[in-house]
Every structure is written in structure tokens, then in C-alpha cells.
Known about the structure:
With 688 residues, the protein is mainly β. Among the domains are: 1-64; 150-336. It is 6% helix and 62% strand. It has a 26-stranded antiparallel β-barrel. A two-stranded antiparallel sheet has the order 11-14. A two-stranded antiparallel ribbon has the order 12-13. The longest helix has 28 residues, at 2-29. Keywords: Lipoprotein, Signal. This is Outer membrane channel lipoprotein. It comes from Geotalea uraniireducens.
Amino acid sequence: MRPLRFAMKLTLTAFVLFVTVSGVIAAEAAPADDNEELSGAQPENVIEPFNDAVELPFDEVEVETHRWLEVPVGYRFMSVEGYGGRAAEYEYLHSSFTGGAQLGSLGKDFKLVLDGAYANAKDYNAQLVADYKGYYRLNVRTESLYHNLDHERLNHPLFSDQNPTDTYGIAVRQDSVNFRYKLHDYPIHLNLGHWLLVRSGNSQLRYADYAFDGAAGNALHSRSNRVDRRIHEGTAGFDAHLGPVNLVYTFLIRQFDDQVGTPQDNLIERRDPDTGAIVRYGGLQQHNSDPESRFYSHTVKMYTSLSGGIVGAASYSYGKRENRSSLVTVSGTDQSSDTLQNAAGDFTYTPCRWFSVAVKYRHQEVDRNNASTLYTPFAANPVVTVRPSIDTRQDVLSAALSLRPITILTISGEYKGTFLRRDNTGTGAALWQLPGESDTHRGTLTIFSRPFKGFRLRALYGYTAADTPAYDTLPERKHTGQLLASYNSVNRWGLSASYQIVREWNNQISRTATDFNDPTLTATYVLPRDRFNYELATGFWFSPVERLTISGNYAYLRNRAEQALLVSHGEIGGYAGSDFVARSTVCGLNAAYQLTELLELSLALQQVRSLAEYNPDSATANGGSTAGIMELSRVKTVENSLSARAQYSLSQHFSCGVNYTYRDYDNKLATANEGTVHLVIASVKAKW
């Protein structure tokens, strides 16, 4: 769209300039008074002025069509040493041809842009955008990305891997088509869209055939599992401008389908160790299910003009999600569904340039419906009672205030309150052991300043408090502090630095005998959590000589959590503290040099160091202990990468380039997933 706007502005500017200059010349050459004009005397070589200077309609303005074409082609040489999936996590580790194309035609009435790039069969993208007079607009897009997955191996006598040499990865593809039609004489747009998400490939499936009674036959299994999952989403609706307000209606339907189906494997028969009675029959059974589902919704929105001093908006959405499970060995899950209702309202008031206030309200209701019992023919008692589902009501109220008392200073504050209500919660085996009510309040204060040209300073403080956190992983109290400073000297050098610190804790986590459904336990275990993390990042750039730019960055992240824990070996029997620490550093150096008008060079270096360890206090429980946990959980890795590029212009229409990339993943404590990847891309590009 930018080339179109540029061509239109250039043409209109030339037209206005021509009219202005012609008018000035005519005015200077006109008669001095009316008498000369009436006498019929007409000086020679005088340009007659326009009698009626009327601006031509846009439809009659001549606009030159701008067209261009770019076609790059090349080849990717891929070399892999070791695994390679961690070193180049999102690269398809195979050599292949590469290419692409960019075609554009921007005219006054019709505009067309086609752009695409092909790296390999798993990594590509393409987009087509077409517009005719603003009445018909079509956008078609497809893109694919490959993700390498690890093959985990467990050194344990009960572990068996049916496919020990297989490698795993998933290709994720998105396709979308959006069409918009504007009624010629009415301010109404009709909108249609379709979106498709496909995940295909192979993954490692790990499952257990295990009974916690020391019975014979306990085993942990691993095998390859084919993946082919698809999500279809279709939308239809309209938007209309109705004087002071705008109206939008959208209907959406989304469906998830698993083309492969639920995995099935033979599981052995299980008996009660005391009575010998059958608890679960053996045979071919389904497990690790990803149930299919369907969701549809209706949404209505209304809002005023977004450019006014007062802006209001409101919306309502009604949706339903249905479980379409195709399980055979378990029946009843397909009877569950969720009904969702969302309402929202926004109000923004900006009376002047230095003050504004905004208030937002969100309301959500989720009504869940599930079967009261499930049936499985493999259980000795085939009818299984299910807990009643949780219905939730959530209200979110936020208010933001922005004040700019002077040009170089802006102060903004925000409050956000979240009020969550649940039913079917409490204590007891028949209820969900979650808080029925949870209120969270969060406030932030931000100061932004530009004390002098090129320098920016931003400071933020936030405080969050929850009376009863909705989950144990959420904080009861939280403090957040941020500081960001940057300075840029025009075309010479620049610096930036940021620091963030977060401290949060939750002292309301506790467990009782009721939580474990074990009447023999009488103690109440308090499990407080205290978390502290901070992030430090710096960066710089400078241009020591003309055409050379050097930049660098450094970041340090640290996360530490202290929490009490329960230690068990079949039964609860230990109480201890624990300490988890994760640290990582990232440093990089980049350089770009325009050696000549025809040759451009660039170089990028980066190193990432990571360390994580979990260290519980020494404790024992019914024959088990915490010894060795830290050694098993400790992770220490170093990732190095180098990228170099050279681009040379052969002529006005042709150029060539070479890219080299080196990536290495080094596991300092083991050899699992180590590997190195070398990638060379040679390409030629033609441009007209």
C-alpha cells in the first residue's frame, strides 16, 4: 500500500502545483483594470486565466500504475552433527532449493500484491492481497513452520522404547482467506473468512502401565505417534456506520479434528494386592486422548468514532463449546459442553491534550455441563461417578488515568480489579478443592520523561494483592518494579539499559487429610512459596566510520523460588523445604558494513548460557528420600550461534548473496540432545 500512497500523493501534488503556477502566471499577466479588458486590448503572449477553477473528481485524476517484480532463487546446504534439534529448534534439518517471488501492481482502481518465500517443504509463506476500488478486498495467506521435538530416553529397568532411533518434529501450517465487500452506496461492509491450522508429523508418546502396589508387570513405554490435527474456523458478519455509532456483528464457528484418532495399546490386568479381586481388566485400551471439539459464537459490538474526545464501546458475545470425543473404551465424555457469555464496555474521555481517562469493564460467565457418570467396560466397577463441573463468574474492572503536566513529563496510573466466583468448590472428595471466591487488585504507576533530546526515561511500579488466590501458583502479594533508560545521538551512537525486579509470595497454600482423602492423616501442612526474580539488559550501537554500524547487547535473568514441600513414597511421610534457581545470560555482537555501493556485509554473534537446579532439603518418607533429586534435575547448557551474510549487486536488476549460519548446543552435564548445525544459503535475485 505504501507505493500506492506515494504514487497518488506525487501525482496529486504535481497536479496542484501545475494549477497553482498556472494561476499565478495568469494573474500576473491579467489587465490592470476593467477598462483595459472592456476596450478589447489584449497584450500578446498572455496566458488567459481559468474562468472556472474546478478540482477534478478523484475518479477522473490520472494515476500512473506502479508495477514491480522480484524473484530470488537459491539452495540451502544443511550439515548436521549430532542431534541438531536443540541447536536449530525451528529449522527443517535437510538441504533443499529455496526461492520466492514478489509481484505488485498498484493502480488507481485495482491493486494486487503477491509475495512468497520458500525455504523447504516444511518452511514457507505466501500472501496475496487484491483490492478493487475499495469495494472488493481479498487477502489469502499460507505459512508453515517446522519444530523439532526431543526424543527423551530414560535409563530405567522398567522403561522400554519401541522406536529408539526415530526423530520427531511437527510442521505447523496456517491457511487463511478473508474477503470484504463494501456496498457501493451504503456504509456497510460484508466480511467472510476462513482459517485453517494443521499440525502434522511425528511425536514421542510416553505412557505408563503401572500400579502403585509393587505388582509385577509395571512398565513405562515409549513409541512413535503420528500427529495430524486440524482446526477449522469460519467467520461471517458485517460492519456498518450508522451516523454517531458503528455496528459490528460476527458469527464464528471453530472445530478441532484429530485425523489419527486416540492411541490404543494393550494394558495388563490389575488386581487388588490384598484381596486378589480384579480392579481393571486387561486388553486393548485407549489413552492419552485429545478430544475433538466444536465451538461457535455470536458477537455484537457498538462503538463511537475513535477520533472524538469521548469514545464509547460495548460488546456482547454468546458462545458454546461442545466435546465431540470419539472414545470407545470410555463413554459419557461426549455429553459435556460449556456455554460462554461475555459482555464488555469501554469509555474514554480526552478533554484536552494533557489529560485523558479510560474505564473498562469485562464480564464473563461460563456454565459447564457434564455427565454425572462415565462408563468403562475395563473397570471392575464400570460406572464411575464424576464430580459436578465448576461454573464461573468473573468481573474485571479497570481504570487508567494519563496526565501530561509539561511537555517532557507524562504520568499514568492504572487500577485493575478481578473478581472471580466459582460453585461446586470446597472440601470433600465430591467437590473441587479450589477457593469459591477470589478477588485480585492490581495497581501500577508509570512515569515517562524526555528531559532532553534523544534521552528517554521510563519508570514503573506495580502492586498486586489477592485475598484468596485462584490457584496455588498465583501470588498472594506481588511487587513489580521496572526502569528503562535510553539515549540516541543522531547517526552516531546510542545506549539503552533496563532493569526489572519482581517479588511475590503466597502463604495461604496448605494441605490437610481431606485433600488427600486419607483419614489416617491428622496434620495440616502449610506450604508457603516465596519467589524472587530480576532481569537486567543493556545494549549499545555506534557508527565509528561511515557505512559501518556496530551493536551489542547483554542480558542477565535470575529466578529463585523457595517453597515447602511434601515428600512421599506411596504415602505422605516427609515435610521439607526446597529451593529452585534458574539463571541465564545472553550476549550478542552485530556488525553491518556497506563496503561499497554494490557490496554489503554483516556479522552476528550470540551466546546463551543457562543453569537450573532444584535443591530440596534432606528428608525421608516411608523408605524414600530426597537424596539425588538435585543431581537429576540440574541442567546446564551453552548455546552458540554465528551468522554471516554478503550481498552483492551485479547490476540494476540482478544481485547475489551468500548466508552462513552456525549453531551449536552443548549440554555440560550430559550428552543428550547435543549437536551442531551448519547452514549455507546461496541465492540470486532478479528485480524489475
